[in-house]
Task: inverse folding
């Protein structure tokens, strides 16, 4: 039975059909082969997987990010980042990373972050004399902060699948996300010094202050979101709802660039982005059910125990496996496949579920920039107008730096667990 | 084929309107819930159900729209590496499998909807058939869109062959 289930699943993936259908299809094959079960189960679990209150945070954060972008926040954000960092060596690159980090605290998606910032900064870096593969690869790697710094769609999905507090996951992502940004900034400065990239004129304090004021609504949004969750005022779903209202008000009355006539298309785009993730999640429910019934996590653990019972070895193996899975699969499909398997294993091994969640999500997000395929790579190629081959060559150093950060987060649990333990005691 | 194409374009347009409507409901109901809880001191009973059922509709209608736009991705690596005549066969097999899977989901989705006709949801007081109906409806749209894409790919492949 188990063999049949796994064979069907791999076979369906190989046919190149949507991963969601492969998830549901393998569960369907299992139920048919079992004979004693009704296929109604398939519909019931899928429905139950979708009709979930915590998952409402997904459409709302998607919508909030899109509304902010539509309202014209990105331009002011980038200007502020340039004013404050432009005069340093590699300053435009640093400004890109800073703007990405702030945008990451508004948006939960790496691709949205890459597109919004890259579209402005890559041409700017080009006209300042930066090599295209440097500017494009730094932007691509930096956009991985998007889903690591809260809010984060992968953390919401992981929290729902593995039954871990989404608030705790959000907090746990802050330090790893900022570490990634700092490491990339260090790399940028080194490259800029070696290649002699120009600096921009130093902005006056007044200019920076004015720029900061214009960017203030974007800078305040993370405080609204995280402050509300931390104060115990909102659930993550409600915080996402408030973020939508905030983004709408700022876009309409502060920047005044949001047009009411554009609202339907913003709703539609956010809805379709949501649906792709939701269909995966819904159809992964029957899949996860089979995984649990067949005790797949236990079986893998028994096999693993013959090699080692150390949780460090386990985490290292998890990282290796996920980096490989991340090459062909995007973050959300990979998460829906691995989270039901990994979460119970970690619990048995005494690994902090929040720590594992950060490691798994961070790792799978890096799959977006591993050549030869990755959603961020594709969208950056389009924006920068360079070939995938050239970007793939340039991405290796930033990618390996990101992997180094991932390993640090893996083997120093405090990097992820410290912040939630201080700010959310008892979770 | 042209008729299916026109029909599907119409269906996709209706599905898009449904996505906009239900996204709008979610975007209004959740902030209203927070407002009700903190300002009015009274949490509306129905808001959770209204929003989650809307989410089911957004998910199914949006997934169908996304399928037609080609944003539902699978692993393309395998058949991109195959010789073209094999790749076409693998693709066709994939389409047949998808149509079969969707047919089963439509059948049992409809059954579940009919079974829940008299079941009333606890907070909103509407038949549970209303949210359940999203599943078969979405899968029917996906079925039609998959058929359209497969027919287009087949006629495209045939044309490609004769062109050589």
Result:
């Amino acid at each position: 039975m188990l063999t049949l289930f796994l064979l069907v699943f791999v076979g369906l993936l190989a046919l190149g059909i949507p991963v969601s259908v492969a998830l549901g299809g393998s569960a369907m094959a299992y139920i048919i082969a079992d004979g004693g079960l009704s296929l109604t189960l398939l519909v019931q679990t899928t429905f139950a997987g979708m009709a979930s209150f915590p998952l409402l945070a997904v459409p709302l954060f998607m919508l909030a990010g899109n509304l902010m972008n539509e309202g014209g926040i990105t331009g002011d954000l980038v200007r502020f980042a340039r004013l404050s960092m432009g005069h340093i060596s590699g300053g435009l690159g640093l400004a890109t990373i800073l703007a990405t980090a702030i945008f990451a605290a508004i948006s939960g998606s790496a691709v949205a972050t890459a597109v919004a910032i890259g579209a402005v900064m890559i041409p700017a870096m080009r006209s300042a004399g930066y090599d295209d593969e440097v500017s494009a690869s730094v932007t691509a790697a930096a956009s991985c902060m998007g889903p690591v710094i809260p809010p984060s769609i992968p953390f919401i999905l992981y929290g729902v699948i593995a039954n871990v507090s989404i608030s705790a996951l959000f907090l746990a992502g802050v330090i790893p996300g900022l570490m990634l940004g700092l490491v990339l900034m260090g790399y940028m400065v080194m490259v800029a010094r070696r290649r002699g990239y120009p600096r921009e004129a130093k902005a006056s304090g007044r200019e920076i202050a004015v720029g900061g004021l214009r960017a203030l609504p974007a800078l305040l949004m993370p405080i609204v979101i995280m402050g509300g969750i931390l104060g115990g005022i909102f659930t993550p779903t409600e915080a996402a709802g408030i973020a939508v209202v905030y983004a709408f008000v700022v876009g309409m009355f502060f920047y005044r660039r949001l047009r009411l006539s554009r609202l339907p298309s913003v709703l539609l785009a956010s809805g379709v982005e949501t649906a792709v993730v939701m269909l995966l999640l819904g159809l992964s429910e029957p899949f996860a059910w089979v995984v649990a019934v067949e005790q797949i996590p236990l079986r893998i653990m028994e096999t693993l125990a013959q090699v080692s019972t150390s949780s460090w070895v386990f985490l290292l193996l998890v990282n290796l496996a996920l980096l490989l899975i991340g090459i062909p699969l995007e973050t959300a499909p990979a998460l829906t496949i691995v989270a039901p398997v990994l979460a119970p294993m970690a619990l048995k091994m005494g690994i902090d579920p929040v720590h594992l969640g950060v490691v798994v999500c961070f790792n799978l997000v890096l799959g977006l920039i591993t050549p030869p395929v990755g959603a961020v790579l594709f969208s950056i190629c389009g924006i920068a107008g360079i070939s995938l081959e050239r970007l793939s060559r340039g991405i290796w150093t930033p990618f390996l730096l990101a992997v180094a950060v991932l390993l640090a987060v893996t083997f120093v649990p405090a990097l992820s667990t410290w912040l939630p333990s201080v700010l959310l005691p008892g979770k | 084929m042209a008729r299916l194409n026109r029909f599907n374009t119409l269906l996709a347009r209706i599905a898009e309107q449904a996505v906009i409507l239900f996204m709008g409901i979610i975007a209004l109901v959740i902030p209203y819930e927070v407002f009700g809880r903190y300002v009015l001191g009274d949490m509306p009973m129905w808001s959770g159900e209204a929003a989650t059922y809307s989410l089911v509709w957004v998910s199914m209608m949006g997934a169908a729209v996304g399928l037609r736009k080609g944003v539902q991705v699978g692993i393309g690596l395998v058949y991109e590496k195959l010789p073209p005549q094999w790749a076409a066969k693998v693709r066709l097999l994939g389409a047949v499998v998808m149509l079969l899977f969707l047919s089963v989901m439509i059948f049992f989705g409809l059954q579940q909807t009919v079974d829940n006709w008299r079941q009333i949801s606890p907070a909103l007081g509407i038949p549970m058939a209303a949210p359940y109906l999203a599943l078969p409806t979405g899968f029917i749209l996906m079925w039609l869109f998959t058929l359209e894409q497969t027919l287009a790919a087949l006629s495209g492949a045939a044309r490609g062959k004769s062109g050589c």
Summary: The first helix of chain A runs from residue 2 to 14. Chain A touches chain B through 56 residues (CB under 8 Å). The radius of gyration of chain A is 22 Å. The CA atoms of residues 68 and 217 of chain A lie 9 Å apart.
